[in-house]
Design a protein that fits this description.
This protein is α/β, with parallel strands linked by helices. It contains seven helices and seven strands. It has helices at residues 2-6, 45-59, 78-90, 104-113, 134-141, 180-199, 204-211, and strands at residues 24-27, 29-32, 35-41, 64-69, 94-100, 116-122, 144-148. The strands form two sheets. It has a five-stranded parallel β-sheet, covered by helices on one side. A two-stranded antiparallel sheet has the order 2-3. The longest helix has 20 residues, at 180-199. Bound molecules: NADP nicotinamide-adenine-dinucleotide phosphate. NADP nicotinamide-adenine-dinucleotide phosphate binds at residues 100-101, 120, 148-154, 157, 159, 205, 219, 221, 223-224.
Length: 249
């Protein structure tokens, strides 16, 4: 929805193509017009409903296919937030429920209220934390995984040669991994990745496809879409391996 707001979508962007797209949206990060830097978190049931109604209106759809909790509100029980989402599902306003950046205990509690279909969390060659506890839990509970920033916000593509390469207002300039010495240290890693990709006759982002586990799909960026590779064939090594998909995509 942030994209929709920024780009000034008018109601009905999916008119004529609704049956060919999966609409996913999130709620939970609260902003203030008078203070653009402000980021609050809210999971109150009344806010969940209000956010969903507003998204349906802005998107011009009757139902959102996948509706996520963007950030868990630690000031109220997750059961209350999920209860409000379950009500929206029962009313047909959303089809599947998701959660973003939640820990294992919260996922279990949320899933007990209503089945979760997706967890969205950062996952890439430099953010492998989900492998320890989250991915096994998702397999156990049958929840799909949507890895965000699979190309490390563009850095793992090798296209960002120095911090100065980024525009002065690019938020990535404030990311600790892309600052000063960290940038230099991480660039060594990107060069190694580029060498692996070159040996396979591929570009680094294509290799990241294969770096992920078989049931994980990388970003929705058009250049990384599997439709660009022959069906059943890996874009990276043409091995015939199917990169697979998640329940959410
Ligand atoms: N749940 C959350 O809290 C959360 C947090 C962050 C992000 N997200 C979501 O995750 C999604 C992706 O995030 P992200 O933008 O950080 O992902 P990313 O895929 O790691 O990075 C995107 C960047 O990679 C570049 N890129 C993509 N394919 C490339 C290619 N083949 N060659 C060279 N560069 C390539 C893009 O370049 P161009 O600029 O040229 O297109 C863009 O700058 C978004 O939908 C976002 O909303 C979710």
């Amino acid at each position: 929805m942030a994209w929709a707001r920024t780009n000034g979508w008018s109601a009905g962007p999916f008119r004529g193509i609704r049956d060919r797209v999966v609409v996913a949206s999130k709620f939970g990060i609260v902003r203030k017009k008078e203070d653009p830097a402000f980021r609050g978190i809210c999971g109150r049931p009344d806010y969940v409903r209000q956010s969903c109604e507003a998204s349906l209106k802005r998107l011009g759809v009757d139902v959102i296919d996948l509706y996520y909790i963007h950030r868990v509100d630690k000031t109220i029980p997750i059961e209350d937030t999920m209860g409000a989402m379950a009500d929206l599902a029962a009313e047909g306003k959303v089809r599947y429920l998701g959660i973003s950046e939640a820990g294992p205990a919260t996922i279990r509690r949320a899933h007990a209220v209503h089945p979760l279909s997706a967890l969205q969390t950062e996952y890439s060659l430099w953010s492998r934390d989900p492998e320890d506890q989250l991915l096994p839990l998702l397999r156990e509970l049958g929840i799909g995984f949507v890895p965000y920033s699979p190309i490390g916000r563009g850095f793992l593509s090798g296209a960002i040669k120095s911090p100065e390469h980024l525009a002065s207002d690019d938020f990535r300039r404030s990311q600790p991994r892309l600052k000063g010495d960290n940038f230099k240290k991480n660039s060594v890693f990107v060069k190694k990745l580029a060498a692996v990709a070159a040996a396979k006759g591929a570009l680094p982002p294509n290799c990241l496809w294969h770096g992920c586990s078989p049931r994980v799909r990388t970003s929705s960026h058009p250049r990384n879409h599997p439709a660009q590779a022959p069906r059943g064939e890996c874009r990276c090594c043409r091995s015939g391996a199917d990169p697979g998909g998640t329940r959410a995509d």
